[in-house]
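Feature request, filed as a ticket because there's no other form

It would be nice if the structure record came with a short human-readable summary line next to the tokens. Right now we just get the raw output. Example of a typical job, pasted below so the devs can see what we mean:
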Amino acid sequence: MGRRKRFDEDDDGRVIARMDVDGMPWHDPRAPEPGEGAGEGSGDAADRREPVKLTPAESRAYAWGALKAALAVAAVFALVFFLFLLFCSKVWFA
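Raw output as currently delivered:
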């Protein structure tokens, strides 16, 4: 019974960082050099998109939304801490 070849649908065959180092037991001298892989030049336009350019108003809106989210989380933690102190002072240590 031979080993089955594992198929991973997320793996497109490109090499991001070669881990094949000379002198290591797993070194394979037949491995292609960086840039020689079959998937190197076959990327579609979606792989090479430019980052989104935001206007100053959009940047402020994103920053304000992030600040509101952080303040909401901080308020919940502060409320829970306050309720814990109230519980300790009125019920637990009474």
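Something like this underneath would help us a lot:
Residues 55-92 form one domain.
The longest helix spans residues 56-92.
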